[in-house]
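Need residues for this backbone.
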């Protein structure tokens, strides 16, 4: 790994954060240019041609898609979205899951209402305000109307441990059917309740999800990454994959993995005036953007 450190990319605005806390999701249209959409669609096509379960027009889900194609691997730390996750998880940011979906014509075999993550003891039990998972969605297909395999969510439901529609396909009052143009990016609280509509159109819905969490939460799509593949990644991508052969390293990453990013305001490796000089960098707590925001509000 090189010693060239990057400054943390931008993440939430205060207005976006307020919406995220209230609704459990923010939607950013035109996050991708037309050329970028085509670049990711081409990468998906390359992946599909190599995948043993791919049948044109059928449903396909591929986890850990970042290992399938160099273009998709570039999403691990993409400046377009990684700052949102870094705002929450800071120096111990981890890619928990990458998942690709192709949803062709379907008359009912779709996800029922559910939250992401643990079920018997959900993340919200331990962290009722901050998400222990944040999921970035890239929507690569125009979804101008309902019944196109749309993502459906209940605004504000990330605050609820119980949900009347759980394990059903029922349409409920207040739900939002995501109808967006290709190139839209969503940032979703992992605990928001959501489902998927049937696709009764002749368009295959194509999208990518990347879920991030603190490094000490278990990965969802792998145990450890292929070391030869890891060697093709840049420094930040290698760190964010958190491919440790010693399990406790997820809680206490090795010294060379600090800093992940330089502070976007000060450009420093560490917070100022918090520790005596003898405290090593990897043993220092660093404040997240969310913590700093709280301090600004209080003052």
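Answer:
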């Amino acid at each position: 790994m090189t010693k060239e450190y990057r400054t943390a990319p931008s993440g939430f605005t205060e207005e976006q954060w307020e919406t995220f806390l209230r609704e459990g999701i923010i939607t950013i249209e035109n996050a991708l240019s037309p050329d970028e959409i085509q670049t990711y669609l081409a990468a998906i096509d390359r992946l599909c041609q190599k995948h043993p379960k791919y049948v044109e027009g059928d449903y396909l889900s591929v986890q850990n898609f970042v290992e399938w194609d160099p273009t998709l691997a570039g999403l691990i730390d993409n400046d377009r979205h990684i700052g949102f996750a870094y705002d929450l998880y800071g120096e111990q940011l981890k890619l928990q899951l990458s998942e690709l979906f192709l949803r062709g014509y379907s008359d009912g075999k779709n996800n029922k209402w559910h939250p992401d993550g643990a079920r018997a003891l959900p993340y919200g039990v331990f962290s009722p305000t901050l998400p222990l998972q944040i999921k970035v969605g890239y929507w690569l297909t125009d979804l101008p109307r309902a019944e196109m395999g749309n993502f459906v969510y209940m605004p504000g439901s990330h605050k609820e441990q119980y949900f009347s529609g759980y394990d059903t396909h029922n349409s409920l009052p207040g739900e939002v059917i995501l109808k967006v143009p290709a190139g839209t990016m969503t940032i979703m609280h992992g605990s928001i309740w959501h489902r998927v509509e049937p696709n009764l159109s002749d368009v295959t819905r194509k999208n990518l999800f990347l879920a991030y969490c603190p490094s000490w939460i278990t990965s969802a799509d792998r145990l450890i990454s292929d070391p030869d593949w890891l060697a093709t990644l840049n420094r930040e991508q290698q760190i964010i994959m958190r491919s440790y052969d010693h399990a406790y390293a997820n809680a206490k990453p090795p010294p060379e993995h600090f800093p992940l990013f330089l502070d976007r305001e000060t450009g420093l490796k560490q917070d100022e005036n918090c520790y005596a000089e003898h405290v090593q960098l990897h043993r220092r707590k660093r404040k997240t953007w969310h913590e700093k925001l709280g301090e600004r509000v209080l003052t």
